[in-house]
Design a protein that fits this description.
Largest sheet: 8 strands, parallel
Radius of gyration: 27 Å
CATH architecture of the largest domain: Alpha-Beta Barrel
Shape: globular
Helix content: 10-25%
Organism: Hallella mizrahii
CATH superfamily of the largest domain: Glycosidases
Strand content: 25-35%
Bound molecules: beta-D-galactopyranose
Pfam families: DUF4982, Glyco_hydro2_C5, Glyco_hydro_2, Glyco_hydro_2_C, Glyco_hydro_2_N
Family: Belongs to the glycosyl hydrolase 2 family.
Strand order of the largest sheet: 26-25-24-23-22-31-28-27
Oligomer: single chain
Domain Glycosyl hydrolases family 2 sugar binding: 85-179
Keywords: Glycosidase, Hydrolase, Signal
Length: 819
């Protein structure tokens, strides 16, 4: 059965391979038709292992997201409280007859979490401990022509905890199969980085690394052609050298607002025949970080309005889904985000491709720990042996991406201090202790480089040896200049995580050094939950080592709740905005993520930090940033209008492009509010609740420019389905519980059941950080009136229909035309 499937898949692949000249490169997806089994025996590597009863699936795949939440799962709530373990994947395939005798066949894994061992026909190709590295193996020497071949991959995520957030388990990114001629461009073997001195004439140096066992006497010619986005050739060069240089005049520049990219085609030509070709995205932009004036892009001073993000995709887990990833980025872009920090590890290559073409500046980060571990079984145990390889691979894979403007060699590594070990801590404590502070004895003394400073220099040297075009930083939560990392002098940008109160001392403590908030804020918010009085700050936990409990398991969605090392959203933005030498910030975090449910413990199992919740519903702070970071007209009045009679309610409003906002409760004015100055980000009214409606009217020069009305919802009667994001394959549908007039019932918790025509339901969520309902299900409780269903289309020529029903509510359906 299995065999038949693999043959079928292979037959689908065959025409593609067969149509190629035997010597040209072709890269094909290798995601379909894998077999999977949870469990472990060494025999599973053997080609003849009886795998016919294994589960059939397509990659990318994350087995943890399919599991049940449990306090007993070894990942802990900090790791998402989902299962770990050991799993095996196998794929059968036949070598195409068209593959020339000398041709090569490679397999590329974009990411396997973690500790993968890859076998072909029983032969071990290699192991890779780091779950975020991409890697390639040459299959050629072990292929069996005309017979069944078996790739077997062992994935070991059994030693837990090994991450401070949810990692996922399995081959969670794409896998590719590449055929090349014997003489070919090495993996990640093209490096192009345009530079300019005067902003008009650009030099485009290209270096090409050839791989071949034996090409003596072949005299390959290297031809580089640069195309603009319309496919027009803007430069070309061909000669026998692997180091070439082209010149381009007045190209269109790349920026987040105008992400103009170019494509470089690199060909290897022998006797007039192209034997290999690789395409690389590149772009033209100048940038610099200045110690006095912050960040400059293409001669324009601007802030990095960035967010940190982990890699999971909510209810889809870590399994890469292009549509889900793009949806995340679209929502961030819409909020005004122009920069992303891949915290705290190399991302999926697709994220970088999207950043290039959608326009996000990227800080690409290598590690969350070096030699000193943060959790018992984390990468620190592999660091000594693997850091050189993993860091090098990140640079080689990523350095062409025009979106990347900063390399980060680490996040809050414990080497900032002479001795600081989290070894004895639980995962939950490890997540909290990072910002607890250390005494002066743990800082660097004297002029000599400590081992930790030397390690910093060593890592920065690896980066510089592969790319000198971007500055290097690290996310540091020790603001003293005697931090061993700062002391090393190897960091080009001083990067603070939090510690806003030390920003004023930066010019004095770090003279001449550019400065960036590599991480900031860590506000805590549950969408839909409001704690009053809203002008009080709620700090949770009170101190990192104190347990925080609150029976609601929630945090206030007014911007009045944060961790002790963090601030409100407005708090940090105010400093960043008004501090010219601060290049910008990366807010913790853009989206909620699974794991690290600070300030709560289980059953909380995902973060409260996001500006957008795990299901994709924006929290209110989203609109504060939108009002500051975009020119879009914003008027966002909140919270809802369903309270107890007479209850005192704080109403906040974020707005822009207006001079004033007036609030009306059932037609009665509650007064006009104006932001006093550029330090004020919202206006507020404190009013007594009476059922009915509230309206905010924004005026500019006395003329109404916008208004927003919120009504008191009556009893729930209906479900409203709307398409939140329609992808190529995966589509996201929001379900809202409403009253008979279509007003959202802000406290509704109805249990909604979904079915779909022409689509599979692949996940459900409601944004609650403490729900222990399964993500892989077709029903969900509404959370503050809302939930989400994610569907994957079966037949793209037909529409998808999503149906929703719940006890006592009118059933409803939504038809979505496919793309
Ligand atoms: C930082 C850390 C992040 C996250 C955050 C939560 O210290 O870099 O990974 O743990 O705190 O506030």
């Amino acid at each position: 059965m299995t065999h038949r499937i693999s043959l079928l898949l292979f037959t689908l692949l065959l025409p593609l391979l067969a149509s190629l000249p035997s010597s040209a490169r072709e890269t094909l997806t290798f995601d379909c038709g894998w077999l999977f089994c949870l469990g472990d025996t060494s025999a599973m590597a053997r080609p003849d292992y009886a795998d016919t009863s294994w589960r059939q699936l397509n990659l990318p795949h994350d087995w943890a997201i399919e599991g049940d939440f449990s306090v007993d799962n070894p990942s802990g709530a900090g790791g998402g409280a989902l299962p770990g373990g050991i799993g095996w994947y196998r794929k059968h395939f036949t070598v195409p007859a068209s593959l020339g005798n000398d041709d090569r066949l490679f397999i590329t894994f974009d990411g396997v979490y973690m500790n993968s061992s890859v076998y072909i026909n029983g032969h071990l190709l290699g192991t890779r401990p780091y779950g975020y590295s991409s890697f390639q193996y040459d299959l050629t020497p072990y292929l069996r022509r005309g017979a069944d071949n078996v790739i077997a991959v062992r994935v070991d995520n059994s030693d837990q905890p090994n991450s401070r957030w949810y990692s996922g388990c399995g081959i969670y990114r794409n896998v590719w199969l590449t055929t090349t001629a014997p003489l070919h461009i090495a993996n990640w073997g093209v490096y192009v980085m345009p530079t300019t001195k005067n902003g008009r004439t650009w030099t485009v140096p290209v270096s090409v690394t050839l791989a071949d066992d034996n090409h003596e006497g072949q005299h390959p010619m290297v031809r580089n052609t640069l195309f603009d986005s319309n496919g027009k050739i803007v430069a070309q060069i061909a000669n026998g050298s692997t180091g070439q240089q082209m010149t381009v005049r007045n190209p269109r520049l790349w920026s987040p607002d105008a992400p103009n990219v170019y494509t470089l085609l690199t060909e290897i030509v022998i006797a007039g025949k192209t034997v290999d070709a690789v395409r690389t995205t590149t772009a033209f932009r100048t940038f610099r970080f200045d110690a006095k004036t912050g960040f400059w892009l293409n001669g324009k001073n601007m802030k990095l309005n960035g967010v940190c993000d982990h890699h999971d995709l909510g209810c889809l887990g870590a399994a890469l889904d292009n549509d889900a990833l793009r949806r995340q980025l679209v929502k961030l872009k819409d909020m005004g985000v122009n920069a992303i920090r891949c915290s705290h590890n190399p991302p999926a290559p697709e994220l970088l491709n999207m950043a290039d073409t959608m326009g996000f500046i990227v800080m690409d980060e290598a590690f969350d720990m070096w030699r000193r571990r943060k959790t018992k079984n984390d990468y620190a145990r592999f660091f000594e042996k693997w850091h050189q390889r993993d860091l090098t691979d990140m640079l080689l894979r990523d350095r062409n991406h025009p979106s990347i403007l900063i390399w980060s060699i680490g996040n809050e590594v414990l080497e900032q201090w002479s001795s600081a070990s989290a070894d004895a801590l639980t995962l939950e404590q490890a997540n909290l202790i990072l910002n607890a502070g250390h005494d002066a004895s743990a800082l660097a003394h004297g002029k000599e480089f400590s081992p930790n400073a030397l390690l910093t220099i060593h890592l920065a040297d690896i980066v510089r040896s592969l790319d000198k075009s971007r500055p290097i930083t690290a996310g540091c939560n020790e603001p003293s200049p005697d931090n061993h990392l700062f002391k090393s002098g190897a960091l080009d940008i001083i990067g603070f995580n939090y510690h806003e109160q030390y920003i004023k001392d930066v010019p004095k403590n770090f003279p001449g050094k550019p400065f960036l908030m590599t991480e900031s804020v860590s506000a805590l918010q549950t969408r839909g939950y409001y704690r009053m009085p809203s002008d009080s700050d709620y700090v949770a936990p009170e101190r990192w080592d104190k347990t925080y409990t609150n029976p609601t398991m929630m945090c206030s969605a007014y911007d009045n709740s944060h961790v002790p090392w963090g601030t409100t959203h407005e708090g940090t933005w105010d400093i960043v905005k008004h501090t010219p030498y601060c290049a910008g910030q990366f807010i913790w975090t853009g989206w909620d993520y699974i794991g690290e449910p600070t300030p709560y413990g289980y059953p909380a199992r995902s973060s409260y930090f996001g500006i957008i919740d795990l299901a994709g519903f924006p929290k209110d702070a989203y609109y504060m940033y939108q009002s500051e970071w975009t020119a879009k007209p914003v008027l966002h009045l909140f919270p809802h209008w369903n309270w107890l009679p007479g209850q005192t309610v704080d109403l906040w409003c974020y707005y822009n492009n207006a001079d004033e906002v007036e609030l009306f409760v059932n037609g009665k004015s509650q007064g006009i509010r104006r932001k006093a100055d550029s330090h004020q980000y919202h206006v507020m009214w404190r009013v007594a609740f009476e059922p009915g409606e509230i309206t905010a009217v924004a005026r500019q020069h006395g003329k109404e420019v916008r208004r927003q009305t919120i009504r008191t919802a009556g009893p729930a009667t209906s479900i409203r389905l709307t398409c939140d994001y329609r992808g190529e394959t995966t589509t996201f549908v929001n379900a809202e519980v409403t009253d008979e007039h279509g007003t959202l019932c802000p406290d509704a918790r109805n249990h909604i059941y979904f079915t779909a025509d022409n689509a599979d339901i692949v996940g459900v969520d409601n944004g609650s950080p403490f729900s222990t309902e399964r993500f892989k299900a077709s029903d969900r409780l509404a959370f503050f009136g809302k939930c989400l269903v994610v569907v994957r289309v079966k037949d793209k020529t037909k529409p998808v229909v999503v149906h929703a029903q719940a006890t006592d509510l009118q059933p409803t359906s939504l038809t979505i035309q496919t793309k």
